Amino acid sequence: MLIDIRDLYKIYNEGLESEVRALDGVSLTIDRGEFVAIIGASGSGKSTLMNILGCLDIASYGEYYLDGTDVNEKTDRELAHLRNKEIGFIFQGYNLIPALDAYENVELPLIYQGIAPGRRDGMVMEALEKVAMADRYHHRPSEMSGGQQQRVAIARAIATHPPIIMADEPTGALDSKTGKHVLEILHRLHGEAGTTVILITHDNSIAATAERIVRISDGKIIYDGTKEGAGL
Amino acid sequence: MNISQAVKMAAKSISSNKARSALTMLGIIIGLAAVIILVSYAQGQNLAMQRYYESMGTNKIQIQAWCWRGGVDVSTELYNYCLTLDEYVKGVTPAQEVWSDFTIKYGVKTLGRDNYETRPTLYLGNDQFSVCNNYAIAKGRDLSYLDIKKENHVCVLGAATAQDLFDMVDPIGKSITINGMPFLVVGLYQAKGSGQTEYNEDGSNWQEVAMTRLDRVILTPYTLNRVLNNNQDIEQYVAKGKDSESTKMAVALLNNFLAGLIPEDYGYGQAYSEDQYQESQNEANAMQQRFLGGIAAISLLVGGIGIMNIMLVTVTERTREIGIRKAIGAERRSIVIQFLIEAAMICGIGGIFGIGVGYLGTLVVGKLSFDTILLPSTGITIGAFAISVAIGIIFGLYPAIKASGLQPVVALRAD
Ligand SMILES: Nc1ncnc2c1ncn2[C@@H]1O[C@H](COP(=O)(O)OP(=O)(O)OP(=O)(O)O)[C@@H](O)[C@H]1O
Ligand SMILES: [Mg+2]
Fold first, then answer.
1. Domain ranges of chain B
2. Ligand with the closest atom to the CA of A49
3. Is the shortest distance between the CB of A44 and ligand 1 below 6 Å?
4. Model ipTM?
5. Which end of chain B has the lower number of beta carbons within 10 A, N or C?
6. Is the pTM of this model over 0.80?
7. If we measure between CA atoms, which residue out of A27, A9, A11, A10 comes closest to residue A221?
8. Domains contained in chain A, CATH given
9. pLDDT, tens digit, for every residue of B297-342?
């Protein structure tokens, strides 16, 4: 089992009147090589769950085992390595560094991985080519459209060839054609490299391409199964 | 991530955020240059003051004494008394200025009342005048005992006066006239001042001007008092103490002696030393230096606040950036090292420019105010550099230390 979470809670402002239970007792297991779509209404807790799965946030309560080891026990350094090598995270809001151009943004995780400069260049351009942004490698985020920024963000996530890709609304900012293209990239990584893909989307047609659907409502998993069972 | 990679990343960050980097550097440059220039100015002032006092001579005892009751030869009595003070006093001389108008001529050149600037002070003195007033012979010889005794018509010229009268000609052995009487030039004094006769607008070079005034002198034997000064009483004397303790002692003894020599209702006698005045002047100077030091500290602070401001204004942006870096796998250590190197580079470059501007400014100020090559002291330079770099590094590091410990999503949400 690659991902194993048990009875996970994320509670903001606990004990206050403004308390929000973004995750309210979630248990979920995902195997290596799966392609999972997480769906649910806005504010249902999808991003919160994904952030915890991506080791970008910690749960208030509950356990999280990644590849059999307890994430809560890991040091800051070990978590950094996990985020760097194991997980490619695509944010809902792109999160590119504004002062760096496309190339430099994609290069960053490779630098932190300690890959030699000579090898980086090929990896960066390969990733940019996959998202059809190679010709814009010298543009800064402020010089790109939302969709282009999203594609650079995807290139950054796949550049290190991580075994897990987590994508929070990767097609949200894209037109249907580019969206389809991005989806193809994820499916190809899944098919060819056996990459585990976890994807958040509110687009049913995109969710329908996944083998497994997880539906969240008010911080709880209300459905976990095939797309047919989910009525897609 | 290794160090060379961190350096590259820091350099990248600096060049990608030009405005932020430039403003930070500017803060450091201004703060540092201001400190260096102000402190150097204060030190230059001190130096000028010191040179001025040295040129005047330390341990100089000025004596004013006259007696209009017949039978008291103040000059001789004073001289003889000073001989008994040889434990404390190196010499004594009449130093009578000739107050009335006089005209000095050499060829077609004339010095006198018509031109205030070049008008020298005409002194009547003896063979110890030079020692007592801290003049050194540059050329020729000083007045001799025989000159005094035989009432020789000889004179010694101050450097500026020699220049005024003779220009390029060697004055030694030449004959000038004072009020028509021929005088042989036997010696020249070394210059005390730099030749400056104009005050700066701010008057900061008054010492230089005053010292140049001291180079406009003519010394003649006091025994010519009759022919040069209408035989008016000699009232001004100068003695030279051996050291500051002896000077104090000698002043007390001389005052005592003068009180005994000159009956209260028939004259006046007082000895005093300017050393005390100098001491209070030094104190005022030290105070001014502290004041300028304070201003310097404030400018350093202002520069520091400028740096702080820029760093803090960008802290949100930087916190987000740190969130992104953490999210894609940067270790805390890498982030802190990158920010440290970045701050050190900005501050180092800014600091070097600041020192450059400070040195240039100091040279300009030194030239304009003191007419010397003034250079900042290394201690001040290093100290100010260290402080401004430290401020820059602390505030450059602040977001890194604060944000690199956060969960990535928390840093990403910063606003
Ligand atoms: N920092 C926070 N403080 C308080 N409440 C928060 C915070 N972050 C998220 N929440 C709340 O947690 C809940 C879940 O948020 P989350 O971002 O996971 O929703 P989502 O399912 O991703 O929505 P969307 O589809 O709009 O992206 C929301 O009600 C949100 O208001
Ligand atoms: Mg979301």
1. 3-50+281-413, 73-261
2. 1
3. yes
4. 0.95
5. C
6. no
7. A27
8. 33-59+70-225 (3.40.50.300)
9. 887 788 778 777 877 778 888 899 999 999 999 999 999 999 899 8
